[in-house]
Write a structure and sequence with these properties.
By secondary structure, the chain is an alpha+beta fold. The protein has 4 helices and 7 strands; from the N terminus they run E-H-H-E-E-E-H-E-H-E-E. Strands 1-2-3-4-5-7-6 form a 7-stranded mixed β-sheet, sandwiched between helices. It comes from Blastomonas natatoria.
Length: 173
């Protein structure tokens, strides 16, 4: 496991990349995906699932990366958010931040941009579904998402444990 970047008095500099083509997004997404999701819950998507979702016309990806240095053409992938819009509603399909970049506000930047993009597009409601014991509930609640449903034993972890799925939504109008 990589050690976190050294703590400094200021947060690391990130840049948001919006509107990436599927073929350009897949590599960085998979790099973050492999690090970000605890394998015991089975929540990470595989390459084929991710590629298939990215190929759909209403799927949108935001990528957050470190600012490239003079020696690099692009920065290191930090996190991503993937949404899918249908009519005037949008679903947050995945949001992930690589463990070494957590606690620097990366998820807040990504979710804030998801909300801004949705509002600009006239989306009336944003939905998400997550494992009910996922600590990300704090982030979603901070942004104003409210629980609207529960699916008992929806997820099955690699240890055969079952986890409830919590559905949350936020009105954007």
């Amino acid at each position: 496991m990589e050690s976190p970047p050294p703590r400094t008095s200021s947060a690391p500099a990130f840049q948001l990349i919006d509107g990436l083509a599927a073929e350009d997004a897949l590599g960085p997404i998979m790099q973050v995906m492999q690090q970000a999701f605890d394998p015991r819950y089975g929540e990470a998507w595989n390459h084929s699932q991710t590629r298939s979702m990215l190929a759909l016309p209403l799927t949108h990806v935001l990528l957050l990366e470190t600012i490239a240095s003079e020696l690099e053409e692009s920065g290191e992938p930090v996190g991503f958010a993937m949404t899918r819009r249908v009519a005037d509603e949008e679903e947050l399909l995945l949001i992930a931040v690589a463990p070494k970049w957590r606690q620097f506000g990366a998820a807040t930047i990504l979710l804030g941009q998801v909300l801004e993009n949705a509002r600009e597009a006239g989306v009336s409601q944003l939905h998400l579904e997550m494992r009910s014991n996922n600590p990300a509930i704090r982030l979603y609640s901070k942004f104003g998402f409210q629980p609207i449903g529960l699916r008992k034993d929806y997820y099955i972890g690699t240890d055969s444990c079952r986890y409830d799925a919590l559905t949350m939504a936020m009105a954007l109008g």
